[in-house]
Design a protein that fits this description.
alpha/beta; Rossmann fold; 2 domains; 5-stranded parallel sheet; globular; Peripla_BP_I; BCAA_transport; signal; ABC-type branched-chain amino acid transport systems periplasmic component; Leu-bd
Length: about 400
C-alpha cells in the first residue's frame, strides 16, 4: 500500500512539474484561417474557429504539446483571396506559426496554400474541397508537398452524389447548375467527369454568378430539358435560391448538393422547403454515438452556442489539429520539414478524433485523409441533417476508416 501511495505521489508531482514547465516554455503557435465574416461563408468560418477552440481546451488541459502550451493565432480571411494571402504571409513571417489549419473557400485556399508551400510550413485544409488544392503541390510539380486536407475532395463528392441518384434512385436524366466561382467551376468539372465515366451526359448544364437572386431562366431550361434530378455546386445561400426557384416552377425532382448544403443557414433560409434535399457529409451530429455527442456538447459549451453552424467544418478542423499534434509528437520537433515528414508517416491509429480513427491518413503521394467510403449522404429533415439511408444510421457506431 505504501509503495502504491508513493507511486501516486510521484505521478502527481511529475504531472505538476510538466504543467509548470509548459507554462515556462514558449507557446507552440498554430495558425487558424477561416472566413469568419465572409459573405455566404460565415457558417464555415465560425465553425472552423469553434472546432479549433474545442481542441485548444482539450490539448492544454493535458499540458500542451512537447511540454509547451498551444496558442491559436486566428485570422479572418473574409472569403477573399487577397485577404487570405495577406494573413497567410502574416502568420508565416510575423507570427512564426509552426503550422496552419483551416480555410473554408477553395478560391481563397488555392493562392494561400502557395504561401505555406514556399515557406515549408505544413497546412491542413479543413474546409475547402477543390481537388486542385492538394493536387497542385504534389510530385512532380513539387518534390515535397506541405499541403494536406481533412475534408472531402471534390474529386470524391460527385461520386457519392451520383451513386445516390443513378445507382440507388435509378435516375439518369440529370441537370447540373453551378456558380461561376472557382469552387463552382471546379465542382462542375468533377461532376461532368464522373458522368462521362458512367457514359451519361447531363441533360442540361447551367451557371450563374454568385449572389444572383433570379435563377428562373436557368431552372426553366433545366425543366424543359426533361431533368429528373438536379445536382447543385455552389455555396448554401445560392443553393437556397435554386431550391426556391425549382419549387416556384413546380419542378418537384430530387435535389442534391455538396457538403455546403449541410450548413445550418441553408435550412434556416428555406424552412420546410429544405425538406428532402440531400448533401454529402463526413459528420452528422448523433446523440447515440458517444464520441460525436461528446464533441458536439463540448463545442456548444466552449463557444456558448446552442447549435453548430457547420458541424462538418468544426469536426474536420478538430481532427486536423489532432493529426497535427500526433505529427509534432512523432517528429519531436516544431520544425516544418520534420512535421511534414511525420504527417506522411502517421502509423498509430488515433483514439481522440471525431470523424474517424485515422490510420496512415497521409502518404508522400496522397495528402487526402478522407476517402470515398468515409463520405455519406445526408438529408435535410425538420431543419437538421440526418442520415439519408437507414443502413448508414444503423451503422453510426462503426468508425469508417480510410481505404
Amino acid at each position: 500500500m505504501r509503495k502504491y501511495k508513493l507511486r501516486i505521489v510521484w505521478i502527481l508531482v511529475t504531472m505538476l512539474f510538466g504543467v509548470a514547465q509548459a507554462e515556462e516554455l514558449p507557446t507552440i503557435k498554430i495558425g487558424i484561417v477561416a472566413p469568419v465574416t465572409g459573405k455566404s461563408s460565415e457558417d464555415m468560418g465560425t465553425s472552423i474557429v469553434g472546432g479549433a477552440k474545442v481542441f485548444l481546451e482539450d490539448i492544454n488541459q493535458i499540458g500542451g504539446i512537447l511540454g509547451r502550451k498551444v496558442e491559436l493565432v486566428i485570422r479572418d480571411d473574409q472569403a477573399k483571396p487577397d485577404r487570405g494571402v495577406a494573413v497567410s504571409k502574416e502568420l508565416v513571417d510575423v507570427e512564426k506559426v509552426v503550422a496552419v489549419v483551416g480555410f473554408g473557400n477553395s478560391g481563397v485556399a488555392l493562392p494561400s496554400s502557395k504561401i505555406m508551400q514556399d515557406a515549408k510550413i505544413p497546412l491542413i485544409i479543413s474546409g475547402a474541397t477543390a481537388a486542385a488544392i492538394t493536387q497542385s503541390f504534389m510530385p512532380p510539380a513539387y518534390p515535397t508537398s506541405y499541403v494536406f486536407r481533412v475534408a472531402p475532395s471534390d474529386a470524391l463528392q460527385p461520386i457519392v452524389m451520383l451513386n445516390d441518384l443513378i445507382d440507388r434512385r435509378k435516375i439518369n436524366n440529370i441537370a447540373l447548375i453551378h456558380d461561376e466561382s472557382p469552387y463552382g467551376i471546379l465542382g462542375k468539372r468533377s461532376v461532368l467527369e464522373e458522368l462521362a465515366r458512367r457514359k451519361i451526359k447531363a441533360v442540361d448544364v447551367e451557371s450563374f454568378k454568385t449572389g444572383d437572386q433570379d435563377l428562373t431562366v436557368q431552372l426553366q431550361r433545366a425543366k424543359d430539358s426533361g431533368a429528373q434530378a438536379i445536382v447543385m455546386y455552389c455555396l448554401h445561400v445560392d443553393a437556397a435560391v435554386i431550391v426556391k426557384t425549382a419549387q416556384k416552377l413546380h419542378m418537384n425532382v430530387p435535389i442534391v448538393g455538396p457538403w455546403t448544403i449541410s450548413h445550418q443557414t441553408f435550412s434556416d433560409n428555406l424552412g420546410s422547403s429544405a425538406e428532402g434535399v440531400r448533401t454529402t457529409v463526413t459528420f452528422i451530429e448523433n446523440e447515440l454515438n458517444f464520441r460525436t455527442n461528446e464533441f458536439a456538447t463540448a463545442y456548444k459549451r466552449i463557444n456558448k452556442v446552442s447549435r453548430i453552424p457547420s458541424a462538418m467544418a468544426a469536426a474536420q478542423t478538430y481532427d486536423a489539429l489532432r493529426l497535427l499534434t500526433l505529427a509534432i509528437y512523432k517528429a519531436n520537433s516544431t520544425d516544418g520539414t520534420k512535421i511534414q515528414a511525420a504527417l506522411e508517416n502517421l502509423d498509430n491509429r488515433t483514439t481522440s478524433t471525431v470523424i474517424s480513427r485515422y490510420f496512415k491518413p497521409f502518404s508522400p503521394l496522397d495528402h487526402e485523409a478522407i476517402s470515398l467510403n468515409m463520405i455519406l449522404m445526408g438529408e435535410i429533415h425538420n431543419g437538421k441533417v440526418v442520415y439519408a439511408y437507414k443502413e448508414d444510421a444503423n451503422e453510426n457506431l462503426i468508425v469508417r476508416t480510410k481505404k
